[in-house]
Design brief:
Elements: H1 7-14, H2 19-29, H3 43-46, H4 52-63, E1 70-74, H5 80-89, E2 92-97, H6 100-112, E3 119-123, E4 136-142, H7 151-161, E5 162-175, H8 200-210, E6 213-219, H9 221-234, H10 251-263, E7 267-275
Parallel strand pairs: 1-2, 1-4, 2-3, 4-5
Antiparallel strand pairs: 5-7, 6-7
Helix pairs in contact: 2-6, 4-5, 7-8, 9-10
Bound molecules: S-adenosylmethionine (SAM).
Length: about 280
């Protein structure tokens, strides 16, 4: 896409100096013992997607994951979903993320949760991952594709790393039925050059053309409006000790703009499971 933000520009948007120290200080202020953290304690700051930890748990149930499932969390951020899947379902999760500060902080939080055996971090792009073909049973993505303009290349790469019979499990923000510009910044983009939303129909056409078989497809826009409305309300006064504002500048304004986009149908939120058919 011409004029789209470069990977370094996307990285810079998500970068925060000394993020690990900031998060540990905030957790301490909130009264937590940072030498022994529980994965669920981190939910206010490590689930960087609409609906937070309940949305991750709902997606996990939809996906029906078994213990030992090898998962790639593409664009997995701080690893909130990864630790949840490890604790709640016994999965082994590799988090791949472009933002080195998220990978570093995520690895430290994982160690402090005692989950280093099940959750590991790799810093890099989901468009050109370093993994062998068919290395994973599941590719998981929550709100990680909005900065990726090359959707066909992204889906081809996800297909490549999935074993035949494996599943792509998605919870993504897509374009909505009403055309028109968004107000910026939003939680995934500081400006239009960073946002690459495409309509749900385009996603489905792309998936079908690659050979993915659709197992489920649910429109979660209505509950997302309610969840983002509640979050926006919590961000109007003084900010809580723990929250996604620790990860990104201008988070209250980004959330208010996202809420407006949801309310005016400029964006939609979809949860889906696709399968790479067995050969
Ligand atoms: C809104 S956050 C979501 C993080 C995480 N999935 C979660 O739900 O907490 C978007 C994430 O996608 C990552 N990202 C964006 N483009 C990427 C790419 N091409 N490859 C890997 N990660 C990417 C960003 O670095 C960021 O951590």
């Amino acid at each position: 896409m011409d004029g789209f933000a470069t990977p370094p520009e996307i990285q810079a948007q998500y970068h925060r100096d000394a993020l690990t120290g900031r998060l540990l200080a905030a957790l301490t202020t909130a009264g937590l013992d940072v030498s022994r953290l529980g994965a669920a304690d981190l939910a206010p700051l490590d689930q960087f997607h609409t609906g937070g930890r309940p949305a991750t748990l709902a997606l996990m149930r939809t996906a029906g994951l078994a213990a030992g499932t090898r998962i790639l969390d593409a664009g997995g951020g701080l690893g909130g979903a990864a630790r949840t899947l490890a604790v709640e379902a016994g999965c082994r999760v590799t988090v791949l993320d472009l933002a080195s500060s998220y990978c570093e902080a995520g690895a430290e939080l994982t160690t402090r949760c005692g989950l280093g055996e099940l959750v590991t971090f790799v810093c890099g792009s989901a468009l050109s991952s370093p993994f062998a073909g068919a290395a994973f049973d599941v590719v998981w993505t929550q709100h990680s594709t909005m900065n990726v303009a090359e959707k066909p290349a992204l889906l081809r790469e996800m297909w490549r790393v999935l074993r035949p019979g494996g599943r792509l499990v998605m919870h993504e923000v897509m374009a909505g039925p009403e055309p028109g510009p968004l107000a910026y910044p939003v939680p995934w983009a500081s400006n239009p050059a960073m946002s690459a939303l495409v309509p749900p129909e385009r996603w489905r056409d792309l998936g079908q053309s690659l050979g993915f078989r659709e197992r489920s497809w649910e429109d979660h826009t209505a509950p997302s409006r309610a969840a983002v409305g509640a979050l926006a309300a919590r961000l109007t006064g003084s900010l809580p000790a723990l929250g996604l504002h620790l990860l990104l500048e201008d988070f209250p304004l980004r959330t208010a703009n996202y809420l407006r986009a949801l309310e005016t149908d400029r964006v939609s939120v979809i949860q889906a499971v696709w399968e790479r058919p067995a050969e």
